[in-house]
Amino acid sequence: MLAVWKVGAIQAHDGLADTPRQGDLDGRGNLSQRALIEFTVWFLRVCLDQVVFMSGLFDLNALARRLRLYVERSQNLKPEAARMLEEALLRGEFDRGEAPRITGLPERSARRVLNDVVGEGLLASDTPKGPVSLRFPARALESLFPRLYPET
To answer: What are the pLDDT digits (tens) for 77-89?
Structure first.
């Protein structure tokens, strides 16, 4: 599986697409139909590989598991934060007033947990009192989306 695009491989195959015609039976015009077909098949395989790879990263169960693990490893977040992140993952967004129901904590404690998660950049909203939705801050990408950004 190609976790990320390999630029050198693309350049190597790109040259095939405009190869001169290889004899009278290789398409019309001055370019090779066989080379174009080979490039197209290769390119579609790479595209399919990327779709499968990204689908795996955004699988809800796997992403929920990685969100829980992120909260467990965090020194700034309480365990109830994982419930909020899963709620946002499954529903898209939720009202701030739902924090006590989601976490099972008293209102004041739930509000503190929500503020911590918002402070970490994992939840945010368009307005200060609006519903919150899931965000993926740069510092969390390696944990939440492994193999997406290979180490350099």
So the answer is: 999 999 999 999 9
Domain ranges of the chain: 7-57, 60-144
- Does the domain formed by 60-144 have CATH 3.90.550.10? no
What is the chain's alpha carbon radius of gyration, rounded to the nearest angstrom? Answer: 24
Residue that has been written with the tokens 């955004």 in this structure? 58
- For residues 63 and 69, what is the distance between their CA atoms, to the nearest angstrom? 10
pTM beyond 0.90: the answer is no
Q: How far apart are CA 60 and CA 69, in angstroms?
A: 14
The Cα–Cα gap between 48 and 4 comes to 12
Whether 100 and 114 have beta carbons less than 8 Å apart is answered as no
- Say if residue 3's pLDDT is above 60: no
141 versus 34: the higher-pLDDT residue is 141
User: Which burial class, exposed, middle or buried, applies to 30 when counting CB atoms under 10 A from its CB (0-12, 13-18, 19+)?
Assistant: exposed
pLDDT-based confidence at residue 148 (cuts at 50, 70, 90): confident
